[in-house]
C-alpha cells in the first residue's frame, strides 16, 4: 500500500487534481514526523486485509476485535492495533485514489465526496489520543 500510495500521489501531482487541503498531517503534524513501517503492508498481511475490511465497512472496534479473533483463533491487542493502523493507512490510500478518480474519471459518481469521507475518518483517527497506544500495542509479541 505504501508503494501504491506513492504512485497515486505522483499521479495526483502530475495531473494537477485536487487533494484535501490538510494532506500533510497524515505524515507530518507540524511537530513531529510519523512513520509506521510494516515492510510489505498489503502484501500477504492478514492484518492489512482485516483492517481494510473493517475500515471500508465502517465497523465498530468490537467488530474488528471479533474479526481478528475469528481469523487468528485468539484475542490479540497487538494484532488489533496493527489492523487499526493499517486500516488508517488504507483510508489515506483510498483518499488519494478518489482524488485521482475525481480529476480523471468519466464515471458519474462523486469520488471527491467519497474520498473526503475516508479522509475525515483518517484525520480523526490520526489525531485521536488512541494513536500512541496503538503504536505501543502493535509492538507487542502477540
Structure notes:
The chain is an all-alpha fold. Helix content is 64%, strand content 0%. The chain has six helices and no strands. The protein has helices spanning 2-15, 46-57, 61-72, 77-104, 111-126, 130-138. α2 (46-57) runs antiparallel to α3 (61-72) and α4 (77-104) packs antiparallel against α5 (111-126). The longest helix has 28 residues, at 77-104. 32% of the residues are buried. Residues 35-41 have low confidence and may be disordered.
Please name the defining characteristics of this protein.
142 residues, mainly alpha, 6 helices
What oligomeric arrangement do these chains adopt? single chain
Beta strand %: under 5%
* Structural class determined from secondary elements: mainly alpha
- Give, in order, the helices and strands: HHHHHH
What's the total helix number? 6
Give a quick rundown of the structure.
By secondary structure, the chain is mainly alpha-helical. The chain has helices at residues 2-15, 46-57, 61-72, 77-104, 111-126, 130-138. It has six helices and no strands.
Give the secondary structure arrangement, pairings included.
Layout: H1 2-15, H2 46-57, H3 61-72, H4 77-104, H5 111-126, H6 130-138
Helix pairs in contact: 1-4, 2-3, 2-4, 4-5, 4-6
